Amino acid sequence: MTDLFAARSQMAMSLAFHIVFAVVGIGMPLLMVVAEGLWLRTGNPVFRELARRWSKGTAILFAVGAVSGTVLSFELGLLWPGFMEFAGPIIGMPFSLEGFAFFTEAIFLGVYLYGWDRISPRLHWLAGIMVMVSGMLSGVFVLAANAWMNNPVGFEMADGVVTSIDPVAAMFNPGMLPTGLHMTVASFEAVGFAVAGIHAFVLLRNPNSAFHKAALAIALTVGGIAAVAQPATGHFSAQHVAEHQPVKLAAMEALWETTTDAPFTIGGLPDAATETTPYGLEIPYLLSFLAFDDFHAEVQGLDSVPVEDRPNVAVVHVAFEIMVGIGMWLMGLALVSGFMAWRVRGVPTSRPLLWALALSVPLGFIAVEAGWTVTEVGRQPWVIYEVMRTADAVTPVPHLVVPFLTFSALYLFLGIVVLVLLKNQVFATVDHEP
């Protein structure tokens, strides 16, 4: 295992582990706030109990996410000193603001957890809103830094030296809005369907439970609205990629040659050796239209850059297909659920629908992982797009396989801890009525 591969593998593993908790930190507070808001409006104790139970799971996942996030912050400096030396003065502001948002979230989550019956209900609900807002902002600030890696602005280079640094321009780079919007909506979608699926599974055994029907209604509404909105945010993000990272778009679509009337490729297994995509289904003109709103627009292919400047096309294309495929499934599930709810004038409890929701619990998180694979692998071989190569940013310290194995063991341990805590504190009571 080369040191570069070990460093990239360790960072990928850390991000893949941490992103689950980051998504929960963005999505779960919204469910809590909606449930408690419904309690304040209706006086129905079911909604109050829902908010309390959901907050327990949120607290557990927040605590573990804090640990994995701390590990990530150390890894940035230890594994990628070249990147931090170059980028720190430029993009340090959103990292600092993310820390501020994180501590704000922690403070108000503490107030929310221990403030039941100790502060007024409306003040308690306001604390939940602060948890939700600070969690979203924490994610947006990190995404701003990542978007800058794909859209490096806010500085100039003079004889190899960084000059004219503008940290505000760097933070509000062209990719901040499409990246932040797409990821935030994805978090609501993933969490909404995961929670809906858990309660749907219980309803399969107890279809008359008012408690789990209420939980399903809230979670499915949040996840469903996000799922229907996600294709629009994805289109917005993809058009941004087409303009600013055309090679990444070419990898996403396995487009080997620059062409007009570019087709949209569904499926297929890209072969870099032959520069073909066997088993792929091409829809003529569609990629040109999706990228530039013109069926005949020219779309840059992978042939526009040398082979050494291309990402791993097979990984990027397959990850993109997984993300889009899951997104389409969840959107279809949302539309079917909405139609059935309209037909029955209430919470749909059809067994086929409940089974579909239960089996879809992990899909939103898988889509998020696939999306981040597209984002990160699609930028390679650059850590800062067309400014710094990943190989130039890695630490010169040898034998990185040792920390890779160490952190792998740490994440395995944390994963077991999370499962045990959720089983004892959350899932142990999931069948119990309030």
Topology:
Elements lengths: L2 H40 L2 H35 L1 H34 L6 H30 L5 E3 L2 E3 L3 H5 L4 H30 L4 H35 L1 H7 L11 E3 L14 E3 L2 H7 L20 H32 L6 H9 L3 H15 L4 E3 L3 E2 H4 L7 H25 L9
Antiparallel strand pairs: 1-2, 3-4, 5-6
Helix pairs in contact: 1-2, 1-4, 1-6, 1-7, 1-12, 1-14, 2-3, 2-14, 3-4, 4-6, 6-7, 6-11, 6-12, 7-8, 7-10, 8-10, 10-12
Outline the structure in words:
The structure is a single chain. Helix content is 71%, strand content 4%. The chain has helices at 3-42, 45-79, 81-114, 121-150, 167-171, 176-205, 210-244, 246-252, 286-292, 313-344, 351-359, 363-377, 390-393, 401-425, and strands at 156-158, 161-163, 264-266, 281-283, 382-384, 388-389. The protein has a two-stranded antiparallel sheet. A two-stranded antiparallel sheet has the order 3-4. Strands 5-6 form a two-stranded antiparallel ribbon. The chain starts with a helix and ends in a 9-residue tail after the last helix. The mean pLDDT is 88.
Number of helices: 14
Specify Rg, calculated over alpha carbons.
23 Å
Question: Strand pairing plus helix content: what structural class?
Answer: mainly alpha
What would you call the shape? globular
Give the fraction of residues assigned to helices.
over 70%
Order of neighbouring strands in the sheet with most strands: 1-2
Overall pLDDT: 88
Oligomer: single chain
Distance between the termini: 53 Å
Largest sheet report: 2 strands, antiparallel
The fraction of residues assigned to DSSP E strands is under 5%
What string gives the helices and strands in order?
Answer: HHHHEEHHHHEEHHHHEEHH
